[in-house]
Amino acid sequence: MSDAQRDKGRRVTVKDLARDLGMSVSTVSRAFYPDAVVASETRRLVLERAAALGYRPNPFAQSLITKKTQIVGMVVADLTNPFYPEVMTEMTAMLQEAGMNVMLAAANQPEKIDDAVDLLLTYQPDLVIVLAANMASHAREKCERAGAPCIFFNRLSADGLGFGVTCDNEAGGRLAADHLIDNGHKHLAYVSAFPGASTNVERHRGFCTQAVERGFAPPAVIEAGRFSYEAGYAAGLEAASAGRPLDGVFCANDIVAIGFIAGVQESGRFRVPDDISVVGFDDITMAGWPTHLLTTVAQPLDGMMAATVSLARELAVDRRQDPHILRLPPGRLIERNTTRRRDGGIA
Amino acid sequence: MSDAQRDKGRRVTVKDLARDLGMSVSTVSRAFYPDAVVASETRRLVLERAAALGYRPNPFAQSLITKKTQIVGMVVADLTNPFYPEVMTEMTAMLQEAGMNVMLAAANQPEKIDDAVDLLLTYQPDLVIVLAANMASHAREKCERAGAPCIFFNRLSADGLGFGVTCDNEAGGRLAADHLIDNGHKHLAYVSAFPGASTNVERHRGFCTQAVERGFAPPAVIEAGRFSYEAGYAAGLEAASAGRPLDGVFCANDIVAIGFIAGVQESGRFRVPDDISVVGFDDITMAGWPTHLLTTVAQPLDGMMAATVSLARELAVDRRQDPHILRLPPGRLIERNTTRRRDGGIA
DNA sequence: CTGAAAGCGCTTACAG
DNA sequence: CTGAAAGCGCTTACAG
Hints:
2 copies of one chain form a homodimer. Chain A is of the alpha/beta class. The first copy, chain A, has 3 domains: 3-57, lambda repressor-like DNA-binding domains (434 Repressor (Amino-terminal Domain)), CATH 1.10.260; 67-167 and 301-328, Response regulator (Rossmann fold, 3-Layer(aba) Sandwich); 169-300, Rossmann fold (3-Layer(aba) Sandwich). Chain A is 43% helix and 16% strand. In chain A, the strands form 2 sheets. Chain A has a 6-stranded parallel β-sheet, with helices on both faces. Chain A has a 6-stranded mixed β-sheet with strand order 7-6-8-9-10-12, sandwiched between helices. Chain A is elongated. The N and C termini of chain A lie far apart (76 Å). Chains A and B meet through helix 5, strand 1, helix 6, strand 2 and helix 7 of A and helix 5, strand 1, helix 6, strand 2 and helix 7 of B. Strand 2 of chain A pairs antiparallel with strand 2 of chain B, so a sheet runs across the interface. The structure holds a DNA duplex.
């Protein structure tokens, strides 16, 4: 029985492995780095024995020297949108398959997100991925000062800085406008969520632009104010009571749309889709449930996650890369039961 | 300008701080440990200067010596239940407030959860919290061998080992039975989710026991098989078509109940609550939405999370504690719109 | 009460 | 190609 195995509670270290193999720790260590110069037979021996003993290098000791931690910080807040939990777990799984670990920074109150990020930075993540959070600019700067570039996923940084992975929300907004217009809708409106969110602004702009280009007046704007069911619901109730003519609505995202529809139905004055068609954005799982069957513009989610993970791998190796924004084409508009053709539709 | 400040990119270290203060690193280090013996004036000076320079001890260097990492591993999988994202982020926020950081282990396929846990263990978490995952026993053993006790949240470990924080699901099942029986329901059924889940088993048992004690036959069991909307939906469709008499249904949890109701409605043969009353379990946010207004047994979520965090703090200090299970009383039954009184009700 | 020294588990110049 | 040595940033006996 080897020394390493005898000592039960303790992890196997390079020293154990070196003694076991009758080599120096330097040689053993080098065997784990493909670029390091070691006799190939030596390397084979080391790796074989390491696997047998269950040796795993201690990442803390490693990072003390290499200044890399293989840790990805993930900042989340404001999880009223079911879009993000899906992304969070799926992307964590992908990052773990790439050998990186995810450390979470979460806050139950927006103003505490800064403390959470501070604590996270203590562990020197190689980079930080920001989901959903309205992270203040100084938080991003703090990350970068600590050597961790930030990738904003879906929603971009308010100041436009940092890395970003998103879809072409403007093109998505255009798809929604085309769908409603092609199906004969005349009275369009946009249900706006958080005004400070790039996603909200861009979807609105695309929807508007396309409507105008196709000869319509700029669509009315209904302010929901936040990306949540409750906000959508209130907006739906209010819009139904306002008495303004309305037959085609594009909502900032799915959860707002689902709330909006409930609000409209609740009003008892109009029905979806009989009187009003509603289009969402994201295609979250819930949108496909028989309960909702929401017509929506899909996000190119797999592509966005793949792009984020691949960018993360690059940044983990070399932080010095110019920040840029990756914008993927939106997914298709998925027609379900919350929109229908009106008289005069051309589609 | 101090040495530390001049050197922009680099973090302030104890050495910097010691030089700045004209003390030894030992003394500086001790100042951060309340139990260490240092002149109180010296400690004051150190802490003051540390705050000014933004010094934060490097947790990797610390953990190399102390063998504590202040890292909590959180294992998640199978996130079809919206209950868990809420818990995950809220509990992360609470743990961060207690100075601990959360590292995630996620897998998009159940069989990969083991690799994810292995990678996680590399970072030597002080303990592991298991959410939702059907973590195999050997994974728990692996954690414990690596020095990280496991806390199972909500759903207990299949082998009953490890720490656990859950609510008294059996009492919750009884509440559901009482509510339905008090309101005159005669034909009860339980919609069963994952048969291997302690929550499923216990809720079923409580519901059954209480019905029998009150003079009813053991309620029928409708197998949904999983804790998901889709599973509930299929069960609802099937139950509505089966033609068996049915007027009061208790579902394994909210998301199953929401799916079940949609399935029943879809069948067109019965309506909720006019023909069939449905009770869920959890009181997730969605249950309170006007779309659903689900009658449900609430989880004592705040209590469960507080208990978990406090147990985590204890275990982070001393791992040697006998594993035990904390079982909190269930929350109230919240009556909403998916149940109604039938003739003969006594309530 | 404080400081010099050893050491946690690694990596990486530097010799040989 | 390999090994001895230094060092990453800390903590903690051990002297004094």
